UniProtKB/TrEMBL annotation:
Organism placement in taxonomy: Eukaryota, Amoebozoa, Evosea, Eumycetozoa, Dictyostelia
EC number: 1.1.1.37
Residues binding NAD(+): D42, N105, V129, G130, N131
UniProt-annotated binding residues for substrate: R92, R98, N131, R162
HAMAP family per record: Malate_dehydrog_2 (MF_01517)
Domain Lactate/malate dehydrogenase C-terminal as annotated: residue spans: 156-330
GO biological process assignments: malate metabolic process; tricarboxylic acid cycle
Protein name: Malate dehydrogenase
C-alpha cells in the first residue's frame, strides 16, 4: 500500500456513512498502519450536516486520518482516488415508480463513473452500495472504460452476513463457525441465499454441511430464503429507518477482504462483473461466491446447481436483465 490512500465516500452526510466513516478511521477496513485521506462527497443541501460529521471525526482523534476534504464536486472528489465507496443515491420516494428510481440513479452513476474514469487512480477499487446497487454499479463501470471492469463491485455482503447469522441462530452455533454461504444475483428480494455448499465447524477439525446440521430442507428452501430476502424491509418496518450500522459493517468486511484477501477456502459474496460462469451472461453485475488474493477476486467455479437453484438463479437474472435494459434505455448507452 502507498503511504497515504485517498478514500472517497459519497453520501457522506447520510445514515450509513455515519457508521462507515468511523469504522474506516479506526482501522477496521485497511488495517492499523494505513494512513487515510478522507474525501467526503454529498449534495450542497447537506454540507452543513457534513461539517458536524467532520467535527466528530476530528474529535475522535484517530491517528490514521491525515486529511479530510468535504466537497460537492464529483471531479474534485475522485481526483487520485484509490478507493471509492459510492453510498449516496436517490432514495425511493412515495409514489415513485421503480423505473423513475432507476432513471434518476442511472444519471447519477453515469456522472460518477465518468469522473472516476477521468480523474481517479487507474487501480481504483470501487464499491457501489446505493440502490439499485447492481445496476448502479453496472452504469458506473460502463461509464469508466479506462478502468478495468474487475475494479467495480457492488455490496451483497450485508445479505451474506444476514444469511450466516440466520444459520447460526437456527443451528445454535456461533456465527464465526458458519462458512461458505452464498448470495447469488441481485441485491433485492429476488436474491438467492444458498447454503447447500456451506458448512459449520462443529468441533476442532470436524465440519458438517449446513443441510446436515439444520436437517430441515423445507425451512432452508422456504423461511430461511425469504427471511434473508426481506430482511431489509423488516429492519425498516421495525426501526423506521433502513439498515445502517449493519450495512456499514458489511461494507467494511467487503473492502477489507477485497484489499487484504479471504482466508484459504473461504467464500464471500460480491456483486461483480459476470463472465459467463454458472450460465449468467457476461455484461451484468451479479453476486457470486468469490475468493480473493492479492487484491483480485476469483469467482468460485464448479459448484453444483440443482433444479431448485437454477430456477432461483433465473428469477434474479431476469430482474437484473430488465433493470439493465431500462437503465441503458434512459442513458442511450
Ligand atoms: P441516507 O438517505 O441516510 O443518505 C444518503 C446520502 O446520500 C444523503 O446524505 C444524500 O444527500 C446523499 N446523496 C444523494 N445523492 C447523492 C449524489 N448524487 N452525490 C452525493 N451524495 C448524494 O441513506 P443511507 O441509509 O445512508 O443509504 C444510502 C444508500 O444505500 C441507499 O440507496 C440505500 O438503499 C442503500 N443501501 C444499500 C445496501 C446494500 O446492501 N447494497 C444496504 C443498505 C442501504
Amino acid at each position: 500500500m502507498s503511504d497515504e490512500i485517498n478514500v472517497v465516500i459519497t453520501g457522506a452526510a447520510g445514515q450509513i456513512a455515519y457508521s462507515l466513516i468511523f469504522n474506516i478511521i479506526k482501522g477496521d477496513m485497511f488495517g492499523l498502519d494505513q494512513k487515510i485521506r478522507l474525501v467526503l462527497l454529498d449534495l450542497p443541501a447537506f454540507m452543513e450536516n457534513l461539517k458536524g460529521v467532520i467535527m466528530e471525526i476530528e474529535d475522535c482523534a484517530y491517528p490514521l486520518v491525515t486529511g479530510i476534504i468535504a466537497t460537492t464536486d464529483v471531479n474534485e472528489a475522485f481526483t487520485n482516488a484509490h478507493y471509492a465507496i459510492l453510498v449516496g443515491a436517490m432514495p425511493r420516494k412515495e409514489g415513485m415508480e421503480r423505473s423513475d428510481l432507476l432513471k434518476a440513479n442511472a444519471a447519477i452513476f453515469k456522472v460518477q463513473g465518468k469522473a472516476i474514469n477521468d480523474h481517479a487512480n487507474k487501480n481504483i477499487k470501487v464499491l457501489v452500495v446505493g440502490n439499485p446497487a447492481n445496476t448502479n454499479c453496472l452504469i458506473a463501470m460502463l461509464s469508466a472504460g479506462n478502468i478495468p471492469k474487475e475494479n467495480f463491485s457492488c455490496l451483497t455482503r450485508l445479505d451474506h452476513n444476514r444469511a450466516k447469522s440466520q444459520i447460526a441462530l437456527k443451528a445454535g452455533v456461533n456465527v464465526k463457525d458458519v462458512h461458505n454461504v452464498i448470495i447469488w444475483g441481485n441485491h433485492s428480494t429476488t436474491q438467492y441465499p444458498d447454503v447447500r455448499c456451506g458448512y459449520v465447524n462443529v468441533s476442532a477439525g470436524v465440519k458438517s454441511t449446513i443441510p446436515n446440521i439444520i436437517k430441515n430442507e423445507a425451512w432452508l428452501q422456504g423461511e430461511f430464503i425469504s427471511t434473508v430476502q426481506k430482511r431489509g424491509g423488516a429492519v425498516i418496518a421495525a426501526r423506521k429507518f433502513s439498515s445502517a450500522a449493519s450495512a456499514a459493517k458489511a461494507i467494511t468486511d467487503h473492502m477489507r477482504d477485497w484489499v487484504l484477501g479471504t482466508p484459504e477456502g473461504e467464500y464471500v459474496s460480491m456483486g461483480v462483473h459476470s463472465d459467463g460462469s454458472y450460465g449468467i451472461p457476461a455484461g451484468l453485475i451479479f453476486s457470486f461466491p468469490v475468493t480473493i488474493k492479492s487484491g483480485k477476486y476469483t469467482i468460485v467455479q464448479g459448484l453444483p446447481i440443482d433444479t431448485f437453484s437454477r430456477e432461483k438463479l433465473d428469477i434474479t437474472l431476469k430482474e437484473l436483465q430488465e433493470e439493465k435494459d431500462l437503465a441503458l434505455s434512459f442513458l442511450e448507452m
